[in-house]
Amino acid sequence: MQRPTLGSEHETARRGGSPETYRHGPLAPWLGSGDIVAVGAAPLPRNEDGHAIVFAGYRLQDVGDFRAAIRDWMGAVRIGGHLVIVVPHAFLFERSNALPSRWRPEQRRLYTPAALLDEVEEALIPNSYRVRWLGDLDNGYNYRLERSVPPVGRHDIALVLERTPIPDWDLTERQVLTATGPDFAFEPGHTRLERPAVSHPTRILVLKLDHLGDFIMGLPALERLRTGFPDAEITLVVGSWNVGMAEETGLFERVVAFDVFPRNSTEEKVDVHGKTTLFRETVTGEYDIAIDLRNDDDTRFLLPLVRADIRAGMGNRAKFPYLDIFLPVDATRHGWEAVRIEELSAREFDCRGVFRRTHHQIAARGDLIRQDGNAVVWGPYRHLLPGQYLFEPHIDIDPRTPGLVAYDIAVDEKVLHRGVFGGAETPPMIFRNETDGGRFEFRLWPVDDEPLADFQFFGGRLVRQGASSVLHQSEYTTLLVELLLLRVTQAGVLREWTPPA
Amino acid sequence: MTIIVAPFSNSDIRDWPAEHFAAAIGHLADAWPGRIRVIGTANQRLRARDIVRQHDPDRVSNECGRIAWPQVVRELEAATCVIGNNSGVAHLAGRFGVPTLCVFSGSHQRLEWRPLGTSVVTLTRSIGCSPCHFDHGSSCPFDKACLRLITPRLVADTALALIAERARATAADAATPAQQELA
């Protein structure tokens, strides 16, 4: 087969066609006649209303900033007018899927219909245009020619865009703005730039001011502090009663006695805050880190009296804003062992219609009830978490009337507890619910062959026993030291950062 | 020399507005000579177009959906700087020690969720409604003021400062012992 020469036909292929080239094909509705402005080397001519048709044939593939080029061309089109873009087809012209272009070395990109549309979507604001036609033009294309010879026939992709008016809405879903910043911004006009900084402390002050047992429980934390900062000079401040034991550990470069508490709090008055001046006189150095290893927060006020870059202790920033590193401890750790206490009013229970109901009680008259095997009060059908519960019904049984009142507790209709009110003392009603969402029911019943006593029922109190979420003292102090090590040597302590000028 | 911009988290309450990203990229492109690549998933490609539209594609590219995750990881590790939201990319860049800016929404506690690493600068506003724990930006009655009030200029300037800082550190590391002594 004879190899074709790169003659004038090839040059035409390189340049693409003029608008007339496409006049009789599928682009005829747009290029068939009328005001057509072709994109050339010179800037597009502009008129006030824009042009009906702008034709960009074989231009886009050579442009670096395709976004600006497409915007510029579309900007020259009037509303309702059309932009016609024609580019060489990578699969028909270059017959390659990678640059450089075989026939046009100046070409910057290869095109498929999808690639062309992708550039248009990236360049133009959504809903500023509509796609009216996109397709491959291959009329007269000779598919039998080898890849190594220039293509014969049309080998283009054409895209027709209509410029449309932009609607008032856009694609971003926004909430209607109901307020702006300053009235709820704590630092109006200020953006925080924060950056963590790690450090290598050489001077550490430790406060462990509580009693003998506390000191012993704190030893694992103190040992961890020593191994974590092997080269630091550690000063320990302890009650005078712990000085000897502290020195014997060999963990500290210096041990200082300071009695913020009496040795025996039952024998002497505790005046922690009265020791401030003495503390200032006793602890006078400068430190990279000052850490208070007492769990209770009554010595935390001493930390700001120390000259230190980093202050660490138990608690939270809301209460102790001067803490750089803090271990939040469970605020409920000194609370009751109950995690949920729910007062259930009489309104949450149902009863026989013959009883008198008021806003806060059910008043029962036994003589109105016939023995029929049914409950006389029932409710409240609460769904419970698994756990141990105590229910305390608020009930007054009239001792002047004959009869008894029975009760039971059921979860998911399975009776877990039952009994009879026999005297002034209400027995503890403890039950265990094993199922998540189990339905709790409390009922009052007549007793077989006995009259029902008169009573007033006011609801009850449902209490769930808590699993204690308290850690051991030694664990709190060790966790605080581990947190200190993590922050200081690895994660860094977060500080506001000002970029260097 | 590449700045990687990751403008999308998996919850748009945490996303700095697209127009802010676009403006910050404009400032960076004016002041810094390298490439800026916007990354994300294929589904985020449409939204990324709003961010890259006004910029020269030779400098600013929309890579959403074009790069497989293993390559993203490699490119993050090699990046000059990474700019992101409170999302996985910022966490990963911080872990790599890459200079990283995290434009952090008030929807969550920054102290709890910020990316770790001494190369990370976290930008936040102190706003009373934070943390709201909303998932959707459209739920915010203040049009995400916690993010909107963080300016593109500040983000760009901070990124440039981090890049300059890293360049100085790299130059100092490369200096001979004699040069270091002179310095």
TrEMBL record, chain B:
<dbReference type="GO" id="GO:0008713">
    <property type="term" value="F:ADP-heptose-lipopolysaccharide heptosyltransferase activity"/>
</dbReference>
<dbReference type="InterPro" id="IPR002201">
    <property type="entry name" value="Glyco_trans_9"/>
</dbReference>
<dbReference type="Pfam" id="PF01075">
    <property type="entry name" value="Glyco_transf_9"/>
</dbReference>
<protein>
    <submittedName>
        <fullName>ADP-heptose:LPS heptosyltransferase</fullName>
    </submittedName>
</protein>
<keyword id="KW-0328">Glycosyltransferase</keyword>
<keyword id="KW-0808">Transferase</keyword>
<dbReference type="InterPro" id="IPR051199">
    <property type="entry name" value="LPS_LOS_Heptosyltrfase"/>
</dbReference>
<dbReference type="GO" id="GO:0009244">
    <property type="term" value="P:lipopolysaccharide core region biosynthetic process"/>
</dbReference>
<dbReference type="GO" id="GO:0005829">
    <property type="term" value="C:cytosol"/>
</dbReference>
